[in-house]
Design a protein that fits this description.
By secondary structure, the protein is mostly helical. The protein has a domain at 30-72. It contains three helices and no strands. It has helices at 4-18, 32-41, 47-70. The radius of gyration is 24 Å and the shape is elongated. The model has no long low-confidence stretch (mean pLDDT 82).
Length: 72
């Protein structure tokens, strides 16, 4: 019994099943920041923590940008 063609067929079908098509649309068109902001404004448990984290991140980015201009 020659298993070569059967094994080749199995391998080809597994490979074809794992391939991604380029025509798939993303699940969401929102950016990560937009999604985080929407979560922060929601009534989900922990949403206030997300909002505070966004505030802290924004302040850190502003501070880093300020220090960047001082170095020039």
């Amino acid at each position: 019994m020659n298993r070569g063609p059967l094994l080749l067929l199995l391998l080809a079908s597994l490979t074809a099943g794992c391939a991604k098509s380029g025509a798939e649309k993303p699940a969401s068109t929102l950016t990560e920041a937009q999604r985080d902001s929407a979560i922060a404004r929601s009534s989900l448990p922990g949403a206030s923590v997300v909002g505070r984290a966004l505030d802290v991140s924004g302040r850190a980015a502003t501070r880093a940008a300020g220090m960047d201009t001082l170095a020039r």
